[in-house]
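Predict structure. Chain length: 214.
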Amino acid sequence: MNVLIDNFRTFAEGFLGTVELTVYASVLALVLGFLMASFRVAPVGSLRAFGTVWVTVLRNTPLTLLFFAVLLGLPRFGLVLPFKVFAVLALGCYTSAFICEALRSGINTVPKGQGEAARSLGMTFSQTLSVVVLPQAFRSVIPPIGSTLIALAKNSAIAGAFSVSELLGTYKTLSELGYNIVWTFVWIAVGYLIITLTISAIFNYLEQRWGVAR
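Prediction complete.
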């Protein structure tokens, strides 16, 4: 308990850093995931190809390697941003591939007749997707999206190795100060548990409100 009380500010800064990474990267992942899912079911071949390449590359690239590519590679091309922004880009882009596939699986559960009926009424592809298909698909993909964002919160720990302030990185400071490493990791685990349980509670509420009835 002393390690928490004596270093509450350090833990709080790390906790808030992880929360910020999780929130910003989640928003980016949801936006990109929605966009890529739209590309993958689009009637335009080039868009489908782009979405397929995006998902294939990111899903099969280790996240640590992606961090190296973004945080150390982009500055070599003149793009210099705070490391936290680079970390959000890496986490958001990586997770967007999984969000895309979750959304695409939900889209595939919607009967084809729904889209055909919308097109027969004169609706465009974008209108059919946003007004008819995605609202129905969203109901079936709430649990997998929630699980993906929980994984994102835990994956944010990698950012600590790149000088980004986050929860897991606090152990380095406290270890140098001579605190018991076991209790340090216990309180770090509690912090991650608070974050993941909060995400789980949010998506449980969404599932109860809008999810597919069982």
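Summary: The CA atoms of residues 84 and 164 lie 6 Å apart.
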